[in-house]
Amino acid sequence: MLSRETKVQAGAAAVGLVVLGVGATRLDLSVWWTQPLLVGLFEAIVFGGGHLYFVLRGGGGSVSLTARRRFLWLILAFLTLVPLVVLAGERTLGPFGVRRVLMWALGGITGVYLFLEGIAGYRATMAED
């Protein structure tokens, strides 16, 4: 028998595939931004859908709500900043290229996420003893 978490993840994957299929039939795929948009939405739904479901339910599954929220914030940051990186082009912000600043922001956000997950994982292993 499948666990509830596996069923929710399968449901998120199914929703992602529907979004991908509907988007591919309704959008003009020759426009440069439509394919990356659809892939980004698909991946966000697949990777974040289960976490979002359990956060909205208020719990459940084997992952803590705090970890689920952190992951959803990471996905939101990527969904916001990656399109801005693409659209930034060669624009500058003072002496810095906007694309470079946004990439550093993405790297910093990812680093903070990994650091917080590492601390949470360490604390969880220490609490079990």
Give a quick set of tags describing it.
2 strands, mainly alpha, 4 helices, 78% helix
Question: What does the model show?
Answer:
The chain has 129 residues and is mainly alpha-helical. It is 78% helix and 3% strand. The protein has four helices and two strands, in the order αααββα. It has helices spanning 4-26, 34-57, 65-88, 98-127; strands at residues 92-93, 96-97. The protein has a two-stranded antiparallel ribbon. A hairpin with a 2-residue loop joins strand 1 and strand 2 (96-97). The radius of gyration is 18 Å and the shape is flat. The model has no long low-confidence stretch (mean pLDDT 93).
Short account of what is shown:
The protein is mainly α and 129 residues long. 78% of the residues lie in helices and 3% in strands. It is flat, with a radius of gyration of 18 Å.
Shape: flat
Helix content: over 70%
How large is the count of helical segments?
4
Order of helices and strands: HHHEEH
Overall mean pLDDT = 93
Protein structure class: mainly alpha
* Portion in beta strands: under 5%
Rg from alpha-carbon coordinates: 18 Å
Number of strands: 2
First-to-last CA distance = 31 Å
Largest sheet, described in full? 2 strands, antiparallel
What low-confidence regions span 5 or more consecutive residues with pLDDT below 50? none
Name the strands of the widest sheet in spatial order.
1-2
